[in-house]
Amino acid sequence: MDKFEDMHIALYSQSDSIGIRPWTHFAVDAGIQDTLAFRDCLSSEASDNWVVRDTVAAFKLGVTGTPTFLINDLLVRGFYGDAVMNELISAALAGTQNE
After folding, report:
1. The predicted structure's pLDDT at residue 98
2. Cβ of 27: how many Cβ atoms within 10 Å?
3. Do 75 and 68 contact (CB within 8 A), yes or no?
4. Helix, strand, coil % in the chain, rounded to nearest 5
5. What is the pLDDT of residues 3-31, one digit of tens each?
6. Contact (Cβ atoms closer than 8 angstroms) between residue 27 and residue 38
7. Residues 71 and 90: beta-carbon distance below 8 Å
8. Rounded to whole angstroms, how far apart are CA atoms 24 and 29?
9. Is 66 left (phi over 0), alpha (psi -120 to 50) or beta?
């Protein structure tokens, strides 16, 4: 199916509708045709477990919002543009190559 990016775009382009429109409407906007399978996935125990796992991990890391990036041991809250992010990633890569 691989519609992650399409779903991401649908949600962020209509973020004012989250909590108002059914999730299946966003899925249709993202090109997901099998809304029954989508609903089953949303209501599955495995999906609940992933959300809980990620929420616990975010809490332990001190994540308080999105976007948040973890670049090696550096927690970056917010997006500071491509140039800054590329510098941070390059510095992290250079640091791992020296180990």
Report:
1. 58
2. 23
3. yes
4. 60, 10, 30
5. 999 999 999 999 999 999 999 999 999 99
6. yes
7. no
8. 9
9. beta
